[in-house]
Hints:
A: alpha+beta, 40% helix, 21% strand, B: alpha+beta, 4 domains, five-stranded antiparallel sheet
Amino acid sequence: MTATPTSADGRLAELQAALPDLRVSNHVTDRIAYARDLWPGGQLEKLAGKHAPEPPLCVVWPKDATQLVKLVGWAKVSKAVLVPFGAGSGVCGGTMAGTGSVIVDLKEMDAVVRVEPENNLVRAQAGIIGWHLEDLLNIEGLTLGHFPSSLMCSTLGGYLATRSAGQCSSLYGKIEDMAVSMEVVTGTGQVFETGRDMGGGLGPSWTQLFIGSEGSLGFITEATLKVHPVPEHRLMQGYGFKRVSAGCEAIRRLMQAGLRPSVVRLYDEFDTVLARSSAEKGSEADTLLDAITGRVKGSGALPWLKRQALQIVLSRPDLTNRMIEELAPRISADGCLCIIGWEGDRRLTEVQARLGHDELIRSGGKDLGEEPGWHWFKRRYAVSYKQSKMFTSGAFVDTMEVAATWDRLMELYDGVRKAIAPFAFVMAHFSHAYPEGCSIYFSFAGPATDPIEAKKRYDRLWSKALAAATRAGGTISHHHGVGRSKARFMTEEHGNSLRLLQTLKSTFDPESIMNPGVLGLS
Amino acid sequence: MSIPHSEVTGQLAEAVGPENLSSSPVDTIAHALDFWPRALMESRKGAWPRGPHWVVWPGAAAEVAHVLRIASSYALPVIPYGGGSSMVGGASPRGDRPWIVINCKRMCNILDMDEVSMVVHVQAGIVGVELEERLNARGFSLGHVPTSMTTSTLGGWLATQSSGMLSSRYGRVGDLCLGVTAVLSDGQVLHTRVAPRRATGPELLHLLVGSEGTLGVITAAHLRLHRLPQHRRFDSFRFDEVGPAIDSLRRCLTAGVRPLVARIQRDPRLRRQERAVDAAEPTPEELARRVLLVAYEGPAELVEVEHEILRDLATARGGEPLGPAPARRWWGQRFAAGFRMTPLLVQERVFADYLEVGATWRDLPVLYERLEEAFDRRGWRTRIAVEHARLEGACLGCAFWGEAGSLEEALESYDEAWKLAAEVCHANGGGLGHVYGGGQHRSALLDDGAKQRLALLTQVKRKLDPAGIMNPGVLGTEP
């Protein structure tokens, strides 16, 4: 070896010598493409000209757990940092390269290991894309029931690592309810199975303790998950509520009545306008853009005008927010839109839909028919792909998903909304409802003509909003995760129980080679 | 290090108040054992069991913390104690150091009840039945009903990840838990924060749930509640053999039905106590028969549909509808079953225990058969029921007993029976310790994968309990 061990070339040569069969790239395109996930704060940095935080040493594509064990062994010796990578669609800076880091793309480990229809289980490797897994299950007449809007650009390993939740979580549960056991490779290089096929067993559940670990304890390489028959029946229905608080109360009663809808969504006044807008071809972000700019008809023909209109509206977000609040009742005649879906066995679906309908009408809901529900259903994956359009139009957009028990939910809604309002135009919907509470999904857009100023504004917005969420007794993330973007709020979030997480880290990754920086762990 | 007993006594008295501390034999003997049948058999030898040197009854987490700091400074083992109804031997440490039992039952208050969110905040020393009754009085239920409910405590349930008879609908106790307060060995009082759900790292309460006192003492928890049901319905079916009964139940759960109770067991009318005095002995065909007992609860119309779905599945597989009576009868006696074994355990030459093993649906019928065969061949009796059914499988609850020539031989047979059970389970996809936890007993019988998982607990324990005082020796931790 001619290069010095400290140089990048030398380290790369060492890695290749240690793992000759491992596919490696240090091409600049790969190093930049893999340097970040889809954290909007990172997009703003990009606009400001900073393409990658610190380009990684290289990107590797392991084929199996054995290669990962060797990779961990190499990283320990050469003090390298390993960053697990699924499909890069995280929005919290959970995958971010650092100096000398190695991005470990798991997508070559993408096999369905076995399907066990009689046990309602599937075993799959972590690198499989959610959409592919669902497709392969559908062929067998099965479904995982996990439908995040990123389904086409996220992996099973990513779901498990970030504690993902899909759009039908009320019926099929969140990823932690689906996973029965996982194979993991820890930061010490140990391979182990976290549980049994028929869960249970003794001692703390390592399955539950590795779910949500965001790559900080090790790699998740395979998982056994519960599956269900493809639903034989599906019903969707829209309801209108005069105020968002009345809609929340109705959802609470629905969830506490012992019914299990597949989809529960309630849009606040402004989000209702977006959700109901009839842009069949469009995506949510297109409509957001249109809505904010007062539907300036100019797409293609007058992009400049659209851009100017956006700037005018976003330059005074506090005013815009207040105006919307005043106008809200007039914007949408039916009030706040609520979408409820039911699916599964035909008889169970029909009876639950009937009981649920009665409950929602008793709670003051106005029956809006099936159309609004199917309208949402058709566009349910559209949202994830159109962010960049907003950024190139000179605005930043982001989302924040918080949650609280019902007794604190309205306080959480008002608190976070007020915290965001001075900085960005904000709207929200409620989804992922539980008998004990609900999550709130805020979408917001702010001006970003000057990316450097915008990033400062963006950071202040997040600090204020997260502080408001913890002050109201809510959690700072319902299903996007923490990554690096919310890491500094982990103490407020967990209090002194954070010690347990630090203990897990020092047990499974004592040398801190696994994705340091996420979850506030260094 | 020699132990300055009186010094420790003085400090403990200061921590919990002298009235909440005892070294009297009445108390130390009462806290010497749990309900592990082998230890109870040993006690037939007539010797007093070795007990703790101190029993304390702290009234709050801060007092628990104080006790743990004292125990740490003298490196004294500490056993958190609830109802003492564990069946797996977790109440007495090995080794010869005197130990402290922390009896949690004075911490038995409901701290807060949020009826809007249906969440209760309650101290861990409360006895199960008392908690349930207090919730019932306000129109709610926890939905966690282990057979031991009249003796066991919430803290015991959480520490052992208890599974109750309504687990098919409401899950294990960890599924009902939204947050815990626990005291670690250095006296730090930790609170995991409550949210309906969060994605802010691993759900940390899962490190404490199921840890059997090896990492800390759970002193309080936030729990999800359910409304008392509007409607409850029972139903029963008789099958000629166990296979089609298992298949019907599996398909019913696959369809999305959530029964309150679903169990497959021998026809209760064949029990000697149930038969007429002059009735003929049951035929082999009668003995092969199984009944599927089921209950549903919730909105009446939904219950009706769930009932129809299973009825259609069961009758299509040869199940003969028996109507609600057999299931209702089982429900009426649901707490008695747990205590049927007790009379056996005081007989001189008898051994008995209860084995619980989880398996996926595919493995379940074979495991059932092999287990029954293996015990039959040795002339030992079994009663196997399919319980705790869920989407991917169920648990076999197997009561076994036998008679030997002497107490010594009975103890030997007891150990042999467990060795045999472990072999059959390992060879046929069964997972031991599905319901009762590990204690000192089950942990030694595990397969390699399960042992590897417990070894990780030992690693975590070294960090959170460096002096090794917290319930040492259970779950494969260092004694």
